Amino acid sequence: MIKVAVCGALGKMGQEVVNAVENAEDMELVAKIDIAAEDMYHTIEEAARVEDIDLLIDFTQPKSIFENAKYCLNNGIKIVIGTTGLTDLQIEELRQLSREKNTGCLIAPNFSTGAVLMMMFARQAAKYFDNAEIIELHHNQKKDAPSGTAVKTAQMMAEVKADFAFNNCDETETIEGARGANSYANIQIHSVRMPGYIASQEVIFGSSGQILKVRHDSMDRKCYMQGVLLAVRHTFKNNDFVYGLDNIM
User: Fold this and answer.
1) How far is CA 52 from CA 38, 145, 230, in A?
2) Is the dihedral of CA 109, 112, 113, 115 positive or negative?
3) Same domain, 174 and 132
4) What total of structural domains would you count in the chain?
5) pLDDT of 36 above 90
6) Phi-psi region of 85 (alpha: psi -120 to 50; beta: other; left: phi over 0)
């Protein structure tokens, strides 16, 4: 049995993860952790002093995930990270720490298998188009922008081509930010935050005479659980560092 702790257990994603782990035949939920909790552990350190934890799943906040991950890796606890907001430098530091401590770490900007396929399709399409932009749409309680999924998508596309603003004219923003954020390979990312959405993303490719759109919509947080459990099983069996669910699908 894989002994699993869930950090951020009271959050909307955390509650779904708790249910998924409890219903998985090869997993045992040994600790629920949330800073706002009254009847469960408040910190990872507190839980680790009492429970034998093989692996921790983190769905907390951008401001806490980096320290959470370092604590786990430094104390022999494998970690699956669903919290977004880590910088490139932080991700690289966790990569090095994972290797140094020989402790598995998997970071997934998105655990929906459909969303991961969308990202993979976008990378494939990037070979054939010189212009592309990304629109990501999330609920208005999401604290980081752009989303980790949009950033990871842009990174995957940039592996294929160095510039997706081919032949664009010189631009002047009359309102700052109107063109979104310029990311990898000059891919503009536009972030929408609005009640009613859970998570959606559209990658738009253009060339003379044609437009291609690759889109994914999440309607329910349960769609992420297949990917979460896949990540837990992989990380439990391996001591590698993985960034992106596409690398184990």
Assistant:
1) 21, 35, 21
2) negative
3) yes
4) 2
5) no
6) left
Mean pLDDT (whole number) for 35-51: 93
Q: Which residue has the tokens 């990658």?
A: 203
As a whole number of angstroms, the distance between CA 76 and CA 97 comes to 11
* 18 in the same domain as 63: yes
Give the pair of three-digit tokens for residue 219.
Answer: 């309607």
Strand partners, 165: 131
CA distance 207 to 110: 28
Any idea which residues carry the catalytic annotation?
Answer: 138, 142
CATH code assigned at 15: 3.40.50.720
What confidence tens digit (pLDDT) does each residue in 135-154 have?
Answer: 999 999 998 999 999 999 99
Give me the pLDDT at residue 84, please: 86
User: For helices 88-101 and 62-74, what crossing angle results, to 10°?
Assistant: 10
Q: How far apart are CA 206 and CA 133, in angstroms?
A: 9
Considering only CA atoms, which of 218, 222, 220 is closest in space to residue 18? Answer: 222
CA 131 – CA 124 distance, rounded (Å): 14
- In three-state secondary structure terms, 198 is coil
On whether the CB atoms of residues 110 and 148 are closer than 8 A, the answer is yes
Question: Which domain, by its residues, includes 154?
Answer: 113-218
Residue 110 CA to residue 232 CA, distance in Å, equals 14
Any residues with CB less than 8 A from the CB of 14 and at least 6 apart, and which?
6, 7, 8, 34, 59
Cβ proximity of 214 and 79 under 8 Å:
no
- Angle between helix axes 225-237 and 113-125 (nearest 10 degrees) is 80
Residue 160: pLDDT band (50, 70, 90) is very high
